[in-house]
Protein 1
Amino acid sequence: MARQDFQDNRARAGIEGTHRTGPRQGPTIEAAPPLPLTMPIFAGQRNTTGEYSHDPISLGILVAAVMLFISSGSTVLTRLARHFLYGEGHPDPVLTNAVLLNIALIIFGWRRYADLHREVLIRRKAETTALRLAETDPLTGCLNRRGLDAALATTLSRHVELGGNLAGLLIDLDRFKQANDVHGHKVGDAILSETARRIDTGLPQGSALARFGGDEFTALVPLMSGADPSGEIDLISTRISKALVEPIRHDGHTVALTASIGSAVACTPHRDDLSSTANDLLKQADIAMYQAKKEGRGHYCRFTPAMEREMLQRCRLEQEIREGIERNEFVPCYEFQIDLTSGAIVGLEMHGRWLSPSRGPVTADVFVPLAENIGIMGHVWESLIRNAFADMATWAPHLTLAVNVSPGDLRDPWFAQKLLKMLMEARIAPGRLEVEIVHGCLDQDFALLRSLFISLHNQGVRLSLDDFGTLYSSLAQLRALPLDRIKIDPACIVGIDRDEDVETILGAIGSVGHNLSLPITMQGIDTPEMLTKLRGHGFSRGQGKVFGPLLNGAELRRELAIYGLLHDREDKPAPDVPGTDADENNCRRTA
């Protein structure tokens, strides 16, 4: 189907499209009938706005002139004829002048009325064009949201009468913004136009295609009565997905994109419930499309009730997170960090917990992704840090606190200033704080991150690289960042009690830390056997379940009081680190 035909057909009928097998029989917006070439003088014509199309003054002059011409013209014309033919008498000058005046008035009135006729035709054409533009997308020739609403209502009404099912497809291009930014808006417009053409080619007759703006398209697809709606819509979606995978070439540029597609089917609705059926159809297709995006680029998903339940639960969870920030429900829990040489408690790592009134304690791996997705993780993080600093003020001055920061935290341009301000307000020495950088942070603008980390390091804040040994870590990055410590991922010691290769790998990692003059913290030490195996590898600190469970602020103060590690008490000697022969109950912690 040619591009011009695709636009011209939609422009002509508002929402009528064309298909390679013939015109699509979708609902149409009928244009107003054209005005006649000659307009009755006495009949009252109305234009598209409902006003009379004739000019009363011009019409009055024209009618009066015609009546005067009829009443006096015959007398004057008769006398003129007799005068020129037989030489009898002379025409009355007054009557002659009146006839000439009437003729002039008739000509003037008719010209004025003809001009008005042309003006009405132009206005009618402009209003028809405006009506078409109000319901179509000028770039692609597809419907817009208003046009789709009209098409949806009309199509549902027809399906109530004729039976059958109606499917909704929501199609969203993946990485379109990136292509638009790289190649320019001209290429981006060409991509959208070609995408609309390919989608339209893959739709059956009677379908309606709309673009809601950006790179999102919606299609209404009538399904054959009696056929399996799921199988039919799956076939259509697969056909469209394959068509959109083909590269698009324009003006020397070649762009390859994929699309995420979600579908939903509305069974034959009741006539009194068309509005809710239309809203549900588009909402369900939207839910399915976002599920397809979650599964990866270029995926297709058909709506299921489980998707909607998951979305509703997610929305409720997001709302509860917002309310939890206001009610200060996000509290820190702490994990001990132990000096593996002396067995002393030297620091703690903060873990976030959400004490939800309805859900109970919720771990960070549940609420952090949601909070980052809705853009409020910064508020959650600040609440946790302030509470942790308040707890930290009661600890012995040599105890440190390790906190994780996410890529979202570091995108805040005021991150360093906010952190240092909270340290000053809590009267905490910057050297007691250790900021743990996760690997995801290194995927951002490295030069900008390095500048941020150097700023924090210059203020005395310590920096460590978390989860080293499992994800990609460049030695050049380790040297470029002002790190004070690296932390080994717990996955590196899985199977250490039965696999000699694990010890070999740990020895190599220990050599890297030694050569870079970076002390190493070993995470995930969960059993006394692991603790024994790890001795001698040069790790300065350790943490894990063998040293005790996570503790909230009150529980931690009680434990620290036992070992004299509160700020207002003298430190007490700490026992040695338990060995492999120690009972597991005695390995709750070393201090």
Note: Confidence is low (pLDDT under 50) at residues 1-52, 569-591.
Protein 2
Amino acid sequence: MLSIFHLKILERCIKYGMGQAYIQEQLEEARHQLTQYCKRNYKDLHHGF
């Protein structure tokens, strides 16, 4: 799933001619959001929610 997300970001960046720094920033933000999402779900699973 994450690799599909990466491909979509790269396609969009290439299409609009965005630079490497912008691409890296977007990937870092996506990684952060996914990490937060996984932590919340993991915590909820262990607390019975």
Note: The helical segments are 2-16, 20-46.
Protein 3
Amino acid sequence: MSGLGELKVSLTKNGFQKIADLIIAHPRNEILQNIRGVYEGVNLDEAQVVNILSGDQKTRELPDVWDDIRPFGENQVRALTFIAILYSHNALIKTFAQSKTGEMRGVLRRNSFSNEKTYTNIAYAMQSFGICTYKPGAPYVDYSLATVFSNMHIGPLAKKVIYRKLQQTGWREPAPHDDFHRTFYEQCFHYRFHDALALTPEQFESWLEGLNVEVSVPPAMEVPDTAVAVSAKLVAALASKPFVILCGASGTGKTTLIRQLASALSPSAVDRRANHAFIPVEAGWTDGRHLLGYKNPFGTDGEYYAWTQVIEVLLKANYDDYSSIPFFIILDEMNLSYVEMYFSRFLSIMETSTSDTPEPIIDCETLQLMLRSGMLDAEQANMAQAAIKKGGLYLSRNVFIVGTVNIDETTHSFSPKVLDRAFVIEITCGAPSLHGASFMIPDEDKLELPASDVAGLLISADISAAPEDAEFNEFLDAVFERSGSFRFGPRVTKEIKRYMAVTAKIAAFAGSPADFALPSEVRDRVLMQKILPKFNGNRSQLGKVLEELLSMEDMKTLAKTVHKLESMRNGLGPLGAVSFFS
């Protein structure tokens, strides 16, 4: 009975990949004369060779395609020989079709073959053709066929090989106007020949017709020049340190503020979420799997990687062509669980992200597992492979993490370790008559610039620390001396100096808010965002500190800081203990 089952050849006899060597060395009419004992290590079965090369079963004559391929070069000969081997056995066609994990790539697994020797022979042959790296004893082998389709120009010759394979199944080219029999391509798609090469039907047909087929690349994207209105405070904080916590009462617009910024800087007018992941944090998170995924050993085909929105954003952010686009990870109600537990990997890695030797947050081994899991689409796979070449996924300069927090009986407080690494912006709400029913950025905080300029501010690596300001240094020293056990270290000082430089750069734009760079305004924001958030304790810990800070002459012009210090001092009376977030 005709059909795909007619395609079969011995796959347990080792060395069939050496057929390529014979094609390189001899014209087709001399190949069968050299398959036994002429060359060291070459001892092939004639029927096997004839079958693989689609020769005539009676005359043993091999088709002229094997002479046609020789002038192309050795790599092309090996690629076409691989195609011939693949389509010589129905089991191989089915196995490769099932093994694809993405565009032009797949994972061949030992347990997919009924005979272990067949797996070993195929894997070794693929390695000899440059398609994979085979490790003896490994339960699987990752392979990529991209080089077969790019710039080899062998598609039309492959079509001749596949045409003869189809004829072996009993298929014949239908006559004109015959609507009852499949055409060449219809029969190929029926047998999933395109899946065996991990191609789409369109790619398969294009390649066989002589066109180069490339792996799909991510689309070109850039931040537009459209004018936007965003929060100057938020932009300044993120440009100084790419980890910001927005705190305030429920309904004050914290989530709206950061989503508005992310949407304003989106490179895609179609999908405004193309540059951010919105993660609602849930109570009970105890590790990083909800953000960075995890390995699951119980998949259908063994271990696989369960991935997340965060990984999707990191893949984009690490892609070289997207380095000028800001990407945001938004952790909504991030203190519903202990931040130190589920966010610890980020807290550790972000300290090395700007060094000369940054550590990846996702390593190459994990990226390889993602590719094997078949969870990535063609564009994501391209990004993952690019990341592997760079040593993994990093918290690159264009990645910004923003958490929103409410403080009530359902949430957890922040440790100094978290607050020390973040800028904290308190969102307050004015009278209803000032803002109506919708969230609006106040005029004193509104930064109006082209979106591309805002993106440049956020990502810019050339913002050096502000020039030494003796008056500001004296003020900072005075705050330090009066902070008691809440004194800040060099990390905070460095980030404050960068913040001052960022503020000056923002103020240079015509669209910046009035008075944004006034010394008193800058000092007020520095204290509120970097120093006071760690204040937390009882009367004996905080009472004297608050009084001494309030007694400073320089505090009189810092309205928000004074209001916060007085609020905390007043809270110590009835409560006995208080924090910045109370």
Note: The chain is about 45% helix and 10% strand.
